[in-house]
Write a structure and sequence with these properties.
The chain is built from 17 helices and 14 strands. It is α/β, with parallel strands linked by helices. The strands form three sheets. The chain has a six-stranded parallel beta sheet, with helices on both faces. The protein has a six-stranded parallel beta sheet with strand order 11-10-9-12-13-14. It is globular. It binds nicotinamide-adenine-dinucleotide.
């Protein structure tokens, strides 16, 4: 089939490229000229393991095309995927649909013959109806919901081996068409789940809110563990082994972040508010997650004896999770400016390089390796769980023998840290000293 992806970001680029890999021809459109130029030279503008290779291969095979010319791409395609961003409106919980609706207007303007429009963007319940209203000649279009569940950092695997493919439509013919599109993945075991359009739109928000709730639950339990001398990892294992609960998303850590959970929990609350439904549970998850960032800062105060000024604080990893360069919703975006404002001297290293988000901070410097970042540190904050941070000998790396390690990902074992006489703090576990 011939597909057009509108929006070539984390979702549009990965799913577009993977669609070519299962035999379709894909036109990826973006309004960002630099992005398209880079992609046409075979380089991915985002860090996603394995993506560069797939792009090069499929570009060469002439199955994958990158363009800023939407009109041309629309003419050549049968199915059009809307993959643009759906952030929260400024200072509001509600979802900014302007990119989606603009894309719909452009489709309506440039489409000559019958088209299938599929929303892959995460959109509030009823957005499919809004898109339909925008389309001038409705008979020419079918609007389907197909939310995307891939995770950054594991996006290619997630696309190729999804747990389920969700299709929302009020037309049987739409299910048949979408089943055909995804057949190679269904044949490999992906569940194909159909519902009405609004149902599919809600499934995506409900999934993300549920996962965010699980993380927040174990983070609150971690607070209790720290006070009572219990290891939260025992609790995660003890409850997660119950098949009704499941062990995933039960690892205590800083606070959930990223481009989806923060915005989608808020988006869901705003969708419910509009329907006069009080989602009190999701509201308290959002509040708890926000509080957690302040709680971590308070803990740093305690660790450093309320003496932050001029302290050298090194961050290992600043993205919200490993194997991605995405900074959206990362806890480091709160922690680093707060500590910097209080006079700390920040050094940081991230495998995906320097971050523009910190460039305005005077005493916040990126270093190209772990050693240079940590060598003079008073406090090292292990912020993101990249593999290269998992077996470091901090005693050899750090010159200051009184350094403290605050491990927000519980990477290191308490016993090992005790043996090595490292002053070590982690999440929901007793300190090693
Ligand atoms: P993104 O910001 O990385 O990419 C969006 C892209 O759309 C940008 O490159 C932008 O230039 C482009 N764009 C916007 N309007 C356009 C237009 N009219 N024409 C052409 N290009 C246009 O966003 P993302 O992270 O890929 O997310 C996209 C959607 O998918 C969101 O709704 C998000 O919630 C959802 N989603 C994201 C993830 C994820 O892990 N990032 C996972 C599942 C679902």
């Amino acid at each position: 089939m011939k597909l057009c992806m509108i929006g070539t970001g984390y979702v549009g680029l990965v799913s577009g490229t993977c669609f070519t890999d299962i035999g379709h021809t894909v036109y990826c459109v973006d309004k960002d000229k630099n992005k398209i130029k880079k992609l046409n030279s075979g380089k991915s503008p985002i860090y996603e393991p394995g993506l560069d290779e797939l792009i090069k291969e499929n570009l060469k095979a002439k199955r994958l095309f990158f363009t800023t010319n939407l009109a041309e791409a629309l003419i050549k395609s049968d199915i059009i995927f809307i993959c643009v961003g759906t952030p929260n409106k400024k200072n509001s919980l509600s979802v900014d649909l302007s990119y989606v609706l603009k894309a719909a207007k452009e489709i309506s303007k440039f489409s000559k013959n019958k088209k299938i429009i599929v929303t892959k963007s995460t959109v509030p319940v009823g957005t499919g109806d809004l898109i339909e209203k925008i389309l001038k000649n409705k008979k020419k279009f079918t609007v389907i919901s197909n939310p995307e569940f891939l995770r950054e950092g594991e996006a290619i695997r997630d696309f190729k081996y999804p747990d389920r493919i969700v299709i929302g439509s009020n037309l049987q013919s739409a299910f048949k068409l979408m089943k055909n599109l995804y057949l190679p993945l269904i044949n490999k075991g992906a569940k194909f789940f159909t519902t009405n359009r609004k149902g599919a739109e809600l499934i995506k928000y409900a999934s993300n809110a549920f996962l965010a709730t699980k993380i927040t639950f174990i983070n609150e339990i971690a607070n209790l563990c720290e006070k009572t001398g219990i290891n939260v990892e025992d609790i995660s294992l003890g409850i997660g082994s119950d098949a009704r609960i499941g062990s995933r998303f039960l690892r205590a850590g800083p606070a959930y972040g990223g481009s989806c959970f923060p915005k989608d929990t808020k988006g869901l609350v705003s969708i419910a508010d509009k329907a006069n439904i009080d989602l009190s549970l999701v509201k308290s998850v959002i509040k708890s997650n926000e509080n957690r960032k302040l709680l971590l800062l308070k803990k740093i105060d305690k660790i450093l004896g309320k003496n932050i000024k001029n302290k050298k604080i090194a961050f290992l990893g600043v993205t919200f999770k490993p194997n991605t360069d995405d900074m959206r919703g990362s806890v480091s975006l709160i922690m680093i400016p707060c500590l910097h404002k209080r006079g700390a001297k920040i050094s940081y290293y991230d495998p995906t390089g320097v971050k523009k988000e910190f460039s305005i901070l005077k005493n916040c410097n990126f270093y190209p390796d772990i050693k240079q970042t940590c060598v003079n540190a008073d406090l090292i904050i292990l912020h993101t769980e990249w593999d290269e941070f998992k077996s470091l000998d901090f005693n050899k790396i750090v010159k200051n023998k009184k350094f403290i390690l605050y491990d927000l990902r519980n990477i290191y074992s308490l016993e090992k840290m005790k043996q090595k006489k490292v002053k070590y703090f982690s999440i929901g576990r007793p300190s090693s000293n």
